[in-house]
Each structure stands twice: as C-alpha cells, then as structure tokens.
C-alpha cells in the first residue's frame, strides 16, 4: 500500500444546493430529482435539465469582482474551490503557493459563452465579439481561474476525459502528491454545458431521457425502465494532502484516498464495452494500489447514468468483481449528469458517506432491472458502517476511472 493521501476539504455547488451541506442533505434524502423545465432549452425535444439554484447575478456576487471575465463553468469551480480550501482550514494568503497544485476537469469549457459569441459573430461580425472570447470558452480556464483566485503556482492541469474528467483530475492530483511534486492539491471537476447544441447532440445520440411528462422521475439509475440521463451542471472540488502533512499542520482528514485506477476501453467513441473488462481493470488497479482485496469494499458509488448500456455494463462489472454484493448508490437520480463535474461531485459524496456511515438511496429507483445482481439502496438512507468505498466514473472515448477511499480513522 502506498502512502495514503488525505481528503481535508470538500466544496460542492450542484442542482441540489449551493454548498456541501445543502447538497448532501438533498442527496442523502434521495426523495426527488433536481430536474425542472429549462427555458434555455424551450422548443427542443428534451426541454428540461438540472440547474444550480442560483441566478446569474447571485453567482456573480459569490465570485466577486473578477466574475465578468469568467465562463459559468469557471465561476462554479471557483466557488467550490473556495469552500473546499476553507473546509480544509487552509489560508491561501499564508501558504506556499509554489507547492500548491490545481487540477480541474471539464468536458466542454464555456459552452454557453461560445453560443453567445457565435451568435454575435453571425449577426454583427467579428468587431462585436468579446475580446475575452478565447479565455471564456477554452476548457483549461476553470483550472486557470481557480489557480489565480488561490494564488497557486504549482502544477496546473486541466483534464478532459469527458464524463470521467473530474475523477481523472483527482487521480492526477493523487499522482502529483505521491510523486512529491506538490504538498497540497486542489482537484475536481466543473461543468455548465446545458446548451441547446449539447442537449440536442446528446438527444440525437440517444443518451438523454425523454420523460418530458415525468421530469423529476426521468433519471432512474439501474431501473428496468431507464431511458437516459438528464443534463446537469455543477462543480465538486477536493483538497488533498499527504496524510502526514495534514496531521502535522493540525488538519482533520475527512477520508483517505488510498488508490486510483485509469483504463481505456478502446472500443467505441460513445458506447462502453459491453463486458466492461477495462472498467473492471481500473477497479482492480485502484484496489491493488490501496493494498485492498475486492471483499474489502463495503460500498460502491456508481457512475449510474440511467442509460441502457452504461448501467448494464457497470452492473455486470460490479457483480463480477465484487460478488459479496456491497451496497450501491448513484447520485444522478437526484443530481442528473453533470458530465465533467460528476466524478468529482460523486467522490465528495463518497467521502461524506464514509464520514456519516450512511448510504444515500438511488432516487427514482422503484423497480430495479431484474437482471442486475446488485444491492441497490432504495427508498431511504441506509445506516452502514462503511469503511472502504469505491467510486466509478466512465466517459465517452472509453475513459474509465475508479477511486478507492477509506475512513480516516
């Protein structure tokens, strides 16, 4: 087992709440979805999504004076990162910024801002697009703005592994810490990509739920009648430190990140491999790094997109690799699918599950698919002495990431 890395801070801004406590309360209850009609998608075949419950003006107020130059996904990342750093008990004005890394993943960058500037270009020509167009839309700027905000001068990276991007960022930060390239890593994912183009594209690909008459029940991971995911947005950021460093400064680890595994299906641009053998290898790699056996896993926070193919492959992989049937949850029933942010949000929720010894139920899962041999938590939160948990993230392009976490004490 390698030296463990401590998770010392969490920051969340999601459709369930504008901070970690609010998000956990709603996800833990698991009684409904954050989906609602989305005016920005009016007239499309799928016209609903899960949005962060803050107006644009309120989000700008949270960010402060530099918000004018940021895309929405960068603003969400900055808000979550500030909360995570506060939660860790760290002061960016006092730390050695040369030893602080920032790794933030996202799938699309400034998608809404891209649409605005393309419309201006089409209607008025190049003279009236913003001089900030490029930094508004490129996907690395969330990481860049977080680093600027926190005065972090260490490694700065942006991961782009689609729906696995947030988990990839955390796995990358884990590697940086173990290699001694930083002492603190601020890592996670962010996304604000519910535009008309992306929504239409996912709809054409057959990935979205079309339950326009049952919006709050549309996302139903592992259900027999699942028909796709719900577009979402948000950000999840974790502060990571080597365990000994965290304890030495008086920090209080929330959980330990003890292993990570990354693989690629190399199978299809969008469809997961049906036997999920590469995803299983990512799981086994994470456990081997952690010095754990499959039977040590008490709980799985599943990717659980509510799509036909992903849920089937993931369920088969869990049943095959973890035949002792650990408890399984999936937050997308409440939160929808925040794409590049999802893996980081779910990692944070896994930390909270370890801390609180309770597993949130899978919202909207009333009739599990009978072919899935899983112990899905449904209906109400389940008290459980969870000591070891894994969280899965899978993305278009065949990217698979698994993080292994344990209780801090």
Descriptive overview:
The protein is of the alpha/beta class and 409 residues long. It is 34% helix and 20% strand. It is built from 13 helices and 15 strands. The strands form 3 sheets. It has an 11-stranded mixed sheet with strand order 5-4-6-7-1-8-15-14-9-10-12, with helices on both faces. A two-stranded antiparallel sheet has the order 2-3. A two-stranded antiparallel sheet has the order 11-13. A hairpin with a 3-residue loop joins strand 14 and strand 15. It is globular and about 60 Å long. The two termini are 17 Å apart. The model has no long low-confidence stretch (mean pLDDT 96).
Radius of gyration: 20 Å
Shape: globular
Low-confidence stretches: none
Number of helices: 13
Taking the sheet with the most strands, its summary is: 11 strands, mixed
In spatial order, strands of the major sheet run: 5-4-6-7-1-8-15-14-9-10-12
How many individual β-strands? 15
Overall helicity: 25-40%
Strand content: 15-25%
Give the overall average pLDDT. 96
SS class:
alpha/beta
The termini sit apart by: 17 Å
- Series of H and E elements: EHEEHHEHHHEHEHEHEHEHEHHEEEEE
Oligomer: single chain
Please sum up the structure shown.
The chain has helices at residues 20-29, 56-63, 72-87, 111-124, 133-137, 141-150, 165-178, 196-204, 243-248, 277-290, 308-321, 332-335, 342-356; strands at residues 5-13, 35-37, 48-50, 100-105, 156-159, 184-192, 233-242, 255-264, 299-301, 327-329, 358-359, 375-376, 382-383, 388-395, 399-407.
């Amino acid at each position: 087992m390698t030296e463990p890395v401590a998770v010392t801070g969490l920051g969340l801004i999601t459709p369930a709440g504008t901070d970690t406590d609010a998000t956990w309360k709603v996800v833990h209850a698991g009684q409904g979805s954050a989906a609602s009609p989305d005016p920005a998608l009016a007239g499309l075949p799928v016209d609903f999504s899960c949005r962060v419950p803050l107006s644009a003006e309120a989000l700008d107020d949270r960010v402060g004076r530099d918000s004018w130059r940021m895309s929405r996904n960068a603003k969400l990342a900055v808000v979550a990162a500030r909360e995570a750093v506060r939660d860790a008990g760290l002061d960016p004005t006092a730390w050695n910024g040369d030893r602080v890394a920032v790794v933030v993943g996202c799938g699309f960058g400034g998608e809404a801002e891209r649409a605005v500037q393309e419309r201006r270009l089409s209607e008025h020509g190049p003279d009236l697009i913003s001089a900030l167009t490029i930094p508004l839309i490129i996907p690395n700027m969330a990481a860049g703005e977080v680093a600027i905000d926190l005065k972090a001068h260490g490694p700065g990276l942006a991961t782009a592994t689609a729906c696995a991007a947030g988990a990839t960022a955390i796995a990358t930060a884990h590697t940086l810490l173990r290699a001694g390239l930083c002492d603190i890593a601020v890592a996670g994912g962010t996304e604000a990509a519910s535009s008309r183009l992306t929504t239409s594209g996912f709809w054409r690909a057959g990935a979205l739920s079309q339950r326009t008459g049952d919006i709050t029940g549309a996302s139903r991971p592992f259900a027999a009648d699942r028909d796709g995911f719900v577009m979402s947005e948000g950000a999840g950021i974790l502060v990571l430190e080597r365990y000994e460093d965290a304890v030495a400064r008086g920090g209080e680890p929330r959980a330990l990140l003890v292993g990570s595994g990354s693989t690629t299906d190399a199978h299809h641009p969008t469809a997961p491999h049906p036997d999920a053998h590469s995803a299983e290898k990512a799981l086994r790699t994470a456990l081997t790094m952690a010095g754990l056996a499959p039977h040590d896993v008490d709980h799985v926070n599943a990717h659980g997109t509510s799509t036909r193919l992903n849920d089937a492959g993931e369920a088969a992989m869990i049943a095959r690799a973890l035949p002792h049937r650990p408890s399984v949850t999936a937050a997308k029933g409440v939160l929808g699918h925040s794409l590049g942010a999802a893996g980081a949000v779910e990692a944070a929720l896994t930390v909270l599950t370890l801390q609180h010894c309770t597993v949130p139920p899978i919202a909207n899962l009333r009739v599990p698919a009978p072919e899935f041999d899983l112990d899905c938590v449904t209906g109400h939160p389940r008290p459980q002495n969870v000591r070891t948990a894994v969280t899965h993230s899978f993305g278009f392009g065949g990217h698979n990431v698994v993080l292994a976490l344990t209780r801090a004490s």
